[in-house]
User: Which sequence fits this backbone?
């Protein structure tokens, strides 16, 4: 992130290497250390990738499994992408509260529903996100090397990203944050390479990646601006900064304009106005607990949780201060601070938002680990692993305690068979339609599908009252759910279904019941 200068090596062997065939007849002697270092680097990246995959896959396998209930947002993005490939436009035809890039990214997986079941296609999409998270961890390693932080620091940073539950807890399902991280880190690496590259195309590619990241979630505009400013000011690469900025604007326009021209007012309202107008829960302490990841340990008392959060906060300050000595990595520290500010100031909060910090945080940890040893090399080497070791330890504790992240759906196949002959199945959550393999069938048949059912309370059915007391929304919800042939409700409490709406949903009796879930008949 200083985005300047070629990659440096701290290895005395690397500095004294001579190219093979230099005329001294010893080319075969001097070439092998370079090959050995390259092989070691590749091995480190493989280890980081595999550790990242193992941590993310363990979250799923230790709870509900690959075919479990992946909550609300992840299936929502998948369902929105499926709606897009069936000719329904976000903003114009259904509420979507984010920029549209995620729908494009998931389109190949949504298209799989033409050959496999909704459940299988969604499972493949989630597995791909695990790969995305692991790839981002490898990008951290490569960025740290480009910054000249050294081999050990690069390992520390990559493994920090791979094992911190702030990233692990979001990168096993189709959330926005993992995809944004991939494009952001890819942009940083491209910009670093462009500083010593042969032409402007790397600058352009870096800008395009940043533009796509912003079109995944608008929060990425903060680190995107940070990359451009540091390129222009810190690295004194004004031409490169201009190209990156132009590439970002061009990519954002290319992704967004086809949707904007279809529904300009609705898109602006959904992506900007409705996001800013969300109910604000600004208490920073719960957010800091989630960032420390101790809140995922259910057995901790309130006092222990606060002490753990305080300890992580102090460690964070020490790491940031120590990282500042590495001039090349200072932009990462600044970006981390700016992204943390965004998180603490955002109107809404969910624990998986922590993944937004993962890239800059891992590079900062690596920069702190690159601090030259002063006294005892062994002691210093041990201390530099402390942040990554602490992050990995908490993640391991979360996995061992079997904290339920994905809720099991043991009766999904049985319920799916019960509605196989029905045209339109309705639900308060896209996960319900995916579970019953009814999502794609309904979209192809032209059935009504709100996609984001509760998202409408930020738009067409906005109200200052809780959803359970929002009479207009309850009326529209009842009409929507009863427009199909059957109804499955997964989120009674979270959706905010009132007693009157429940009675309307259930008044025609039960079509099927299994595994604690019920499919209601509509006559």
Assistant:
């Amino acid at each position: 992130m200083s985005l300047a200068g070629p990659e440096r090596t701290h290895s005395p062997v690397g500095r004294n290497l001579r190219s093979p065939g230099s005329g001294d007849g010893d080319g075969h002697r001097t070439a092998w250390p370079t090959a050995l270092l390259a092989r070691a680097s590749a091995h480190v990246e493989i280890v980081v990738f595999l550790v990242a995959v193992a941590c993310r896959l363990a979250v799923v396998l230790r709870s509900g499994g690959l075919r479990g209930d992946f909550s609300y947002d992840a299936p929502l993005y998948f369902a929105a992408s499926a709606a897009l490939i069936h000719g329904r436009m976000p903003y114009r035809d259904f509420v979507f509260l984010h920029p549209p890039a995620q729908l494009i990214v998931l389109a190949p997986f949504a298209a799989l529903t033409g050959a496999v079941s909704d459940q299988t296609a969604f499972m493949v999409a989630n597995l791909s996100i695990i790969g995305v998270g692991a790839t981002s961890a490898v990008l951290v390693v490569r960025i740290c090397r480009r910054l000249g932080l050294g081999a050990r620091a690069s390992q520390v940073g990559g493994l920090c990203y791979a094992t911190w539950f702030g990233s692990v807890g979001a990168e096993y399902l189709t959330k926005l944050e993992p995809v944004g991280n991939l494009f952001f880190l890819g942009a940083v690496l491209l910009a670093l390479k462009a500083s010593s590259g042969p032409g402007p195309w790397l600058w352009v590619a870096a800008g395009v990646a940043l533009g796509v990241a912003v079109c995944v979630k608008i929060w990425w505009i903060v680190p995107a601006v940070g990359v451009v400013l540091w390129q222009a000011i810190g690295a004194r690469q004004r031409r490169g900064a201009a190209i990156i900025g132009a590439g970002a604007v061009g990519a954002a326009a290319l992704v967004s304009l086809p949707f904007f021209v279809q529904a300009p007012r609705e898109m602006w309202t959904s992506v900007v106005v409705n996001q800013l107008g969300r109910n604000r829960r600004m208490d920073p302490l719960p957010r800091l607990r989630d960032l420390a990841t101790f809140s995922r340990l259910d057995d901790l008392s309130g006092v222990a949780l606060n002490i753990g959060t305080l300890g992580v906060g102090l460690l964070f300050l020490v790491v940031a201060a120590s990282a500042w000595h590495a001039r090349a990595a200072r932009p990462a520290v600044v970006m981390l601070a700016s992204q943390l500010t965004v998180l603490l100031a955002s109107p809404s909060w969910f624990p998986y938002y922590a993944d937004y910090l993962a890239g800059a945080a891992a590079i900062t940890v690596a920069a702190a680990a690159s601090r030259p040893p002063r006294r005892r090399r062994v002691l210093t080497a041990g201390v530099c692993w402390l942040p990554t070791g602490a992050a990995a330890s908490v993640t391991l504790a979360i996995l061992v305690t079997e904290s339920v992240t994905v809720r099991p759906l043991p009766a999904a196949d049985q319920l799916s068979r019960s509605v196989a002959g029905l045209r339109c199945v309705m639900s308060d959550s896209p996960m319900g339609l995916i579970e019953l393999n009814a999502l794609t069938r309904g979209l192809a048949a032209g059935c009504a599908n709100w996609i984001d059912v509760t998202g409408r309370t930020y738009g067409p059915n906005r109200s200052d009252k809780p959803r359970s007391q929002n009479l207009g929304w309850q009326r529209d919800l009842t009409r929507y759910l009863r427009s199909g042939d059957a109804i499955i409700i997964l989120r009674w409490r979270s959706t905010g279904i009132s007693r009157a709406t429940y009675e309307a949903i259930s008044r025609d009796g039960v079509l099927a019941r299994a595994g604690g879930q019920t499919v209601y008949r509509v006559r």
User: Anything to note?
Assistant: Confidence is low (pLDDT under 50) at residues 4-30.
